[in-house]
Amino acid sequence: MLNPVFLAPADLNQACSLLADEAIQPLAIAGGTDVMVRFNRHRRRRQETLVCLGKLGLDYIREEDGKVLVGACAPLSEIAASPLIREKLPLLAKACSEMASPAVRNAATLGGNVVNNARHADGVAALTALNAAVVVASTEGERTMPMSDFPSAPKLEKLAGDGIVKHFAITPLGSDEIWAWKKLRQRKGESRSVVSVSMRASMQGGKCTAMRLVIGCMAPSPFASKAAAELMVGQEPGPALHEQVALEVLKECTPASDARASAWYREKVTAVLIERVLSQLN
To answer: Which pLDDT does position 2 carry in this prediction?
Structure first.
C-alpha cells in the first residue's frame, strides 16, 4: 500500500494522530511557502505525507479573557490588516506587514514562521518582544509555553511528535506602553531581514518603568536583552543612555556572517537600530 501524498484532516485530534504516525512520515503544512521551496530547491523525491492544517479552523484572530488570540494558521496579510491587531498589537501588525513579499504574505502563516524557527524569522522576534505565549495542542491535551522559550526548546519538548501550535496568546498593549519595530532588509520587494530590533516598554513620570528589547537575526534565535532592561528601567531616556545601552546589548550578541550580511555589518547596523528604537521613548 502506497503512502498517501496529501491529507487534509478537519479535526484537530485527527491531525495530531496523523502527525504521530511515523509510518507515513508526516510533515505538517499550513501555507506551504517554505515546504515547497525546500522540495523544489533540493529536487529530491518526496517521501513525506503532507498533513495540511488548513481545515482545522486555526486562522482566527479574536480577543478572549483579556488576551488577543492569533491562530497559528492565520495568514500574515490578514494579521497585518486586522483592525483588532492594529489597535491592540500594532507591533505585530507592523512586523507581519514587512515580512517576505505581498504574494508570500497572502499564503504564509504566523504559525509556520514560528515553527520553522529560522534565524531570520520576524514572527518569532515580534512575538518574543510582545512576551506572547504559545499554545500547543496534542493528543494529550493543550499546554502553554512562553514564546521566549519556544525557539530554543527541543522539538520533542515543545511539539512532542504529534503537537500542533494552536494559537498565540498575547496581552494587548496598555495605554502607557510604547512599541517600536525596526529592521534592515535586503531589498524592498522581497523583505528578507538582515537584522531587526523590536521594543515593548512602559513610561511613567518621564522614566522607563518596563523594557523588553528584542534583537533578531543576530543569534540562532531572537532574544530579549537583559542589559537593556537593567540599564533603562528607572532611568530617563536620552541619547547618551541610548548609546550606552546599544554598546551593552552588542556584548550579548554573537553576530554571524551569511549570504545576507557580514557579522561586522550586522553589529554596526544593530547599534544604530537600537538607538533609533529607544528614541521612541523620548
So the answer is: 46
DSSP secondary-structure letter at 5?
A: S
The reply to whether 18 falls in a domain is yes
39 and 129 in a single domain? The answer is: no
In a domain, 199, yes or no: yes
Amino acid, res. 270:
T
Left (φ > 0), alpha (ψ -120 to 50) or beta: where does 100 sit?
Answer: left
Per-residue confidence (pLDDT) for residue 1, from 0 to 100: 38
- Helix axes 263-278 and 239-251, enclosed angle (nearest 10): 140
Burial class (CB in 10 A: 0-12, 13-18, 19+), 179: buried
Which segments of the chain have a pLDDT < 50?
1-3
The percent of residues above 90 in pLDDT, for the chain, comes to: 76
* 17 in the same domain as 86: no
Task: For the full predicted model, state whether its pTM sits above 0.85.
Answer: yes
Residue 1 domain-assigned (yes or no): no
Q: Who contacts 102 (Cβ-Cβ below 8 Å, separation ≥6)? A: 77
- Give residue 269's Cα distance to chain centre: 21
DSSP assignment of 162-212, as one string? T-EEEEEEEPPPPTTEEEEEEEEES-SSSB-EEEEEEEEEEEETTEEEEEE
Q: Indicate the residue type of 207.
A: K
| Domain limits for position 14 | 6-52
Q: For residue 148, which of 212, 228, 223 has the smallest C-alpha distance?
A: 223
How many domains does the structure of the chain reveal?
A: 3
